[in-house]
Design goal:
alpha/beta, eight-stranded mixed β-sheet, seven-stranded mixed β-sheet, globular
């Protein structure tokens, strides 16, 4: 198991092209999740949460398209070795001393593959999807110690191999994720046969153990029952057993407690927490329920109209929310605000992101919106204590759970004019311009530490 993140999502974009418009359901999403940790993704319906999870698993159907410039990096060393062994011509070896720009090691250069920039024009686009950051090229796949497989760039066969056996998903509606014409045991055994090569009595015993692990009583008898013979809570437990059948390292939970009563909801959350401890699972938990997030998440990403607008540790997010959207979500939770007759609400609804992000998408609903919010697209900025926290040699804040928000109200230490210049410069830099704040005519805007998300190949805007 890797010491760092097991899954890294970077610049992920998923669009749906229709006759009327192009919907940017996921628009530049970045996050990491590590073994034994839970990342909560929260936001209203229509924010792009479920599409993000389906994109990670390669389950986006037509007319959906995933931007090839984004990446879903899976870091499990054994999977990297296995994939490299089966696709040796599509492996990129990085020097231990190189940065993340894709510099090749000497041995890799001798292999004749070369870097993308060194390739002859007629060789086409670099199609390597396995990257080795620590390994011995002379030993081949067996010498790989660390790296990743990019599931966006990988062939469908590799994505299908990862789906279920490496990254599994618990869907929102357990009843619809279970096939009504097959017994629960049959469905679990099929997964065990396809992904783990188990059959016969061994597969049945393993299936019974899985049902027992998720708290289903009399598992041997339940194997022969159909989904409609299970209660709602039992169906959700069976769906979790299916997701765990192939012993994945990452579990994506898409609103797994929606539609369940409070008691059953608490039991499912207890079950997930126990399974995570026992299996060192990395969990991505998607929900619109801030109360659930406060209980189960270690870190939180707040999503709105296809973008993450704030991210922090759960403790910081609930104690010191910075983005106006996050503040609005928290104020709408019963019990977290003063004793009042009517809970505050956020006026309006989540817009359909059908245009490139050239402004703040929350601005039409934001109580603190400025005129510039309609013309400047905000970038993530360290906020709170992280605005002044020490940064490591890569430019990232020292804490992996650093608190950032994409809002023109920050950095708070700068004047309004300087803040706008900082965000505009970062936007220009992302678009391919120099974006050098040091050359800005605004004397109030020197060197602003805008966050560029962990794992990016480029450094923070100075």
């Amino acid at each position: 198991m890797t010491d760092g993140p097991i899954l890294s999502v970077e610049a992920l974009r998923t669009t749906f092209h229709t006759d009327r418009e192009t919907v940017r359901a996921v628009d530049g999403v970045d996050f990491d999740v590590s073994p034994g940790r839970t990342l909560g993704i929260v936001g209203e319906s229509g924010s792009g949460k479920s599409v993000t999870a389906r994109t990670i698993l390669g389950l986006v159907d037509d007319p959906g398209r995933v931007d090839p410039d984004g990446s879903v990096r899976y870091h499990d060393p054994e999977f990297v070795r296995r994939t490299a062994a089966s696709h040796p011509d599509r492996v990129r070896w990085l020097d231990a001393e190189s940065d993340e720009t894709g510099s090749r090691s000497e041995a890799d250069s001798r292999s004749g593959t070369g870097s993308a920039s060194e390739s002859a024009p007629d060789e086409g686009v670099d199609d390597r999807f396995v990257t080795v950051t620590d390994g011995h090229p002379d030993e081949g796949a067996g010498g790989i110690e660390a790296g990743w497989v990019d599931l966006v760039a990988a062939p469908q066969a590799v994505t299908e191999e990862a789906r279920g056996s490496e990254i599994a998903m618990v869907f929102q509606d357990a009843a619809s994720s279970l096939n009504p014409v097959y017994t629960v045991g049959n469905q679990i055994r099929e997964l065990l046969r396809i992904h783990r090569g188990l059959d016969g009595e061994e597969a049945r015993r393993t299936a019974a153990t899985l049902l027992e692990d998720v708290g289903i009583p009399d598992p041997e008898r339940r194997l022969d029952e159909y989904p409609h013979q299970f209660s709602g809570g039992m169906q959700q437990r069976a769906a979790i057993a299916l997701a765990l059948a192939c012993d994945p390292a990452v579990l994506l939970c898409d609103e797994p407690t929606t539609g369940l009563d409070v008691t059953i909801q608490a039991q499912i959350l207890d079950l997930l927490e126990r399974l995570q401890r026992e299996r060192e699972l990395a969990v991505v938990f998607i929900t619109h329920d801030m109360g659930v997030i406060s209980r189960i998440a270690d870190t939180v990403a707040v999503m709105y109209a296809g973008e993450i607008v704030e991210r922090a540790s759960a403790e910081r997010l609930f104690g010191e929310p910075r983005h106006p959207y996050t503040e609005g979500l928290l104020e709408s939770i019963p019990g977290l605000v003063a004793d009042i007759d009517l809970l505050p609400t956020i006026d309006g609804s989540v817009p359909t992101p059908n245009e490139p992000a050239t402004s703040c998408r929350f601005a039409p609903r934001c109580p603190e919106a400025m005129p510039e919010c309609e013309t400047v697209h905000p970038r993530h900025v360290p906020v709170g204590d992280d605005a002044t926290s020490p940064r490591d040699e890569t430019g990232d804040a020292a804490s992996a759970d650093r608190h950032t928000a994409a809002c023109l109200l920050y950095p708070e230490s700068l004047s309004r004019r300087a803040r706008l210049a900082a965000h505009e410069a970062a936007d220009a830099s992302r678009a391919g311009d120099s974006g050098d704040l040091g050359e800005s005519e605004d004397s109030d805007a020197p060197h602003v530490p805008l966050d560029r998300s962990p794992g990016k190949d480029d450094e923070d805007q100075p």
